[in-house]
Amino acid sequence: MEVREINIAIPRYRRKWQSFMEINGITEFSPNEVNTIEKTFLWEEDGDRAATGSIAGNVIKYVAVCSKYKEGGALFNQVVSYLLQQAAQMGRFHLFVFTKPKYVQSFEYVGFKKLAVSDTGAILETGVPGVTEYIEKLPHFEGKIGSIVMNANPFTLGHRRLVEVASSKNDHVYVFVVKNDVSLFTYSERIELVKQDVKDLTNVTVVSGNDYIISPATFPAYFLKSDQEIGAYQAKLDAILFKNQIAKPLGITTRYLGKEPYSKTTDSYNHELLDILPPEVNVEIIDRKTADDKIISATKVRQAIVDDDQDLLHEFLPKTTWEFVKNNYPNLKERLIRKGSK
Amino acid sequence: MGIKETALAGTLESSDIQITLSEGTGINIDLDSSVEALYGDQIKKVITDTLNKYGITDAKVKAVDKGALDCVVKARTMAVAQRALGTTDEPNWEVL
Questions:
Q1: pLDDT digit string (tens) for A223-276?
Q2: Residue A230 pLDDT
Q3: Least Cα separation, residue A78 to chain B (angstroms)
Q4: The CATH number of the domain where B53 resides is what?
Q5: Total number of domains constituting chain B
Q6: Pick the CATH number of A133-339 from 3.40.50.620, 3.90.76.10, 3.40.50.10490, 1.20.1600.10
Q7: DSSP strands (E only) in chain A
Q8: Which one, A46, A129, A147, A171, has least CB within 10 Å?
C-alpha cells in the first residue's frame, strides 16, 4: 500500500480522485466544497485506488475507502492517522469532520468525539483544545441566563437593542461573537467594538463563538450564498451543537434573535433554531429597532460606507463603533470595494 | 516544567497509540482505549512516568490507544515529548 499527495487542480488527477469517490458513494462536488481543499492524499495498492482523504483548513473531508478494504477498518484507521499527522505538521491539532450518521462510530473508534448528530448528518471533532476546554475557559454564572449570537459586522444600534432587551430580562447574558475573518470587519475589530459598546451593561459578557458557533469550519454555507439544502443541513447541526454542547453546560435558557427581514440565510437559520432549541432553550425573536422608520441593519451600514452616507452611519451606529468607522473610513471603504460589497 | 508547543505522535492503527500533548496544568490524561478497564491505569502510569523523566509536570495528554504494548506507549510518549519540547535532534538517552 502506497500513499502519495495528489494535486486535484490537475484535471487528470481530479478525474482519478472524483471517479473513485463516485464509485464509493460520494457525489457532492460543488466548487464551494472542493475549492477549500488544501491537500489530497491517495492510497494505492498495485496501481489500484484503495482510499483517499483531504484536508481543508481544520476540516477533514472527502474520506473514502474502497469496499474491498472496509473489512476490519484497518485502512480507514491508517487513512485517518495519516491525515491527522499531516494536519499536525501544518500546526493543526484540532480537527473536525462532517459525515453521515452511519459513519459516526467509525470516527469515534479513532478518537473523534460527537458534537452533533441529526438525521442527515453528523459533526465530530478530535484533538485539543476541544469543546470541553472551550466551555471550561468561559466564565460561568448562576441564575437566569440568556444568550445572543452575532456576527456584528459591524455592531449597530439594532444589535445594541437586542443586548439591552436580553440584559433586562436575565440575570446574565452571554454575547457570542462569530469568529471568522471573511467579513468586512475583522474578528478582533468586531469583538472589541461589541465589548466597548456594551460596557455599561454589567451583566453582559462578550465572548468568542470560537469554532463552535456559526464558524467557517462547522457552518461554511452561512458565509457563502450557496445551496439552501446544504445550508439547512449545516444550520441544523449548528443548532444541535449549540443546544447540547454550549447552552447545556453554561445553563443558558434563552437565545435571543433579531428578526431578519433582509438575509435569506439568516432567516432560514433562525427557522432551524426555532425548530431545534425549544423546549430546553427558549427562542425569543425581537423586532428590529428602527430609526426614523428605517430598519437598522449591518448590511445597510456596509452599503452606507460605500455610498458615503455619513448621516445614516451616525444614526445606526453606537458611539465606539461610529468613531471606529469614522477613523478608519478610507481603509474600510477600500476593503469593501476590493471584496465586492458583501 | 510545562510544554510550549502542541505535538502529536503515533497512529491509530492496531497495536499503536496516538498521543497529543498540549499545554495544561498538572498531568491530565484523557485516555480512549478499548482495553481501558483492564489496562487504563497501566497506560496512564507509563505515560506519566515517561513525561516525568523529561521533567514535564504540566501537560494535557490526549491518548487514543489501539492496544499498544507498554514499550510502544513509552516510545510514542518519548517522541511526543521531544516534539513538544522541540528537542527531537537531541535524544534523551537517560529516559531509555
A1: 665 556 667 888 899 999 999 999 999 999 999 998 876 677 778 888 899 999
A2: 66
A3: 6
A4: 3.30.230.10
A5: 1
A6: 3.40.50.620
A7: 2-6, 39-45, 48-56, 59-65, 94-99, 113-117, 122-127, 145-150, 172-177, 204-208, 252-258, 282-286, 290-291, 294-295
A8: A46
Look up cell 440575570; give the residue: A171
Tens-digit pLDDT profile for residues A129-181: 899 989 999 999 999 999 999 989 899 999 999 999 999 999 999 999 998 87
Please provide the distance, in angstroms rounded to a whole number, between the alpha carbons at the two ends of chain A: 47
User: Could you write out the three-class secondary structure of A305-342?
Assistant: HHHCCHHHHHHHCCHHHHHHHHHCHHHHHHHHHHHCCC
Under 8 Å CB-to-CB from A199, ≥6 apart: which residues? none
Nearest C-alpha in B relative to A130: B62
* Closest chain A CA to residue B11: A81
Residue A81 touches chain B, beta carbons under 8 Å: yes
Tell me whether the CATH fold assigned to A2-128 matches the one assigned to A133-339.
no
In this complex, the residue of B20, B32, B66 whose CB is nearest that of residue A93 is: B20
Please classify residue A62 by burial: count the beta carbons closer than 10 Å to its beta carbon, then call 0-12 exposed, 13-18 middle and 19+ buried.
buried
Indicate the fold that domain A2-128 takes in CATH. Aminopeptidase (3.40.630)
* Cβ neighbours of B66 in A, within 8 Å: 77
Closest residue, chain B, to A87 (C-alpha)? B8
Mean pLDDT of chain A: 89
In sequence order, what are the residues at sequence separation of 6 or more whose Cβ sits closer than 8 angstroms to the Cβ of residue B1? B55, B56, B57, B58
Partner-chain residue, chosen from A74, A78, A93, that has the shortest CB–CB distance to B22: A93
Identify whether B17 is part of a domain: yes
Residue B81 within any structural domain of the chain: yes
Residue B93 lies in a domain: no
Please answer yes or no on whether A81 and B7 come within 8 Å at the CB atom. Answer: no
A167 touches chain B (CB under 8 A): no
User: pTM value?
Assistant: 0.87
Domain positions in chain A: 2-128, 133-339
Q: How large a percentage of chain A has pLDDT more than 90?
A: 58
Q: Is residue B66 part of a domain?
A: yes
Cβ contacts of residue B55 below 8 Å, gap of 6+? Answer: B1
